[in-house]
Amino acid sequence: MAKYIGALDLGTTSNRFIVFDRRGNIVGQDQMEHEQIFSRPGWVEHDPMEIWRNTRAVIRGALGKTGVSGKDLAAIGITNQRETTVVWDKTSGQPFSNAIVWQCTRTDEICRRLEKHYGQDGFREKTGLPVSTYFSGPKIRWILDEVFAARAAAEQGTALFGTIETWIIWWLTGGPQGGAHVTDVSNASRTMLMNLETLEWDDEILEVLSIPRGILPRIVPSIDENTWGHTLREGAFGATVPVCGALGDQQAALVGQVCFNTGEAKNTYGTGCFLLLNTGHAPVVSHRGLVTTVGYQVRGKKPVYCLEGSIAIAGALVQWLRDNLGLISTAPEVEDLARTVENNGGAYIVPAFSGLFAPHWRSDARGALVGLTRFVNKGHLARAVLEATAYQTRDIVEAMNADSGVALTKLKVDGGMVANDLLMQIQADILDVPVIRPRVTETTALGAAYAAGLAAGYWSGFEELASNWAEDRTWSPQVAPEAREEGYKYWRKAVTRTFDWLDS
pTM (2 decimals)? Predict the structure, then answer.
């Protein structure tokens, strides 16, 4: 029997390939960043071919570092930045344009037209999502409107659409020579095109957006014993490895954190920040700005749904402090700088760089730095950067508690930012609940590995996965209730200062 499971983590800023053993421990990995392309204000793009090249490179790199052969892998699981949209030619494999990234706001006018005719919640009953530049459907429409070659190919039946996992699965399993064109239910639920009840593309919404069904991938379970395809022997793995598990990155983290029971929640701190609450086998419609999404599905079983709060800018705010302002040289330095002060000095940063996501959904908002006095120094700004992530998370938790009717009592956390001990303490203080970091914090990639391993029979079931989870550290609240509420009062005031910055 194969010794290991491989996981591709196709993130917003980098690609990684990680090899896991049966206990969920990391055997080895490799990582490569890809370019962030900002061609206009508010526009964010990636080069799909660079992502494919880097995918092959990190696979070879991780296998080479560990001495693991492709033949030693039971299966490959994939997790990905969600909503990012690629349209390509199925005969050549060439994309018609750069990928439009989930953060990109270029579809604002398309969304305004949809809101005018249907309202912001016009598709929420079917899809669980508000009309927003965040989701893939309007991005597809933009490409078909603005890129002549894509529109012509769609009319001729030679164009394919996919989010990043679809793009890479297609290439891994053959590309123009018969690659599998599939998307799992968790990613499909982020397009604004899939009906949450039927788990199929919705014909009415496709007609509204004038998107031809023929360009869309086949929707499959996240954990699928019916293997979608195998890697090519002449490819990066040097072996035919089954590809049978895929999850959007936040759903993958939910699985990696073994939140299999209704009421369990996790928060992932990466480029953005995403809090998911397992609501069981029935979708819960949010009335407070959250989205309803598919968490995961095992073939032959009912899907598991989630309420999700999506924050566009979390770790990206630390990058902004580093790259745009030059106040730190490396991301980890933000913790040391923030520790030079006891509080934020009255300063608040609301990072609405591409509008505000949940629970506000204000595409007209833009970032604001408020509360400045001569007293504020760079340490206070670093502290405000960390607090911005924690306060945005509280906004989500407040809405989630009200929607679900169940108060959050603890929060499992993961992602790159959880290495920041100060941020974790700030988060516990602002939420007034314990914050728990697991021993293995690479839970997004681990969730993808779990999906593929369950499908391939490498793991016996959810019970075995739950036995792998172990706590690393817990932070408990340490501030007085009055101070907590005073800080949150000014945060909410700061958020309102970002509204209506862009004219309609």
Answer: 0.85
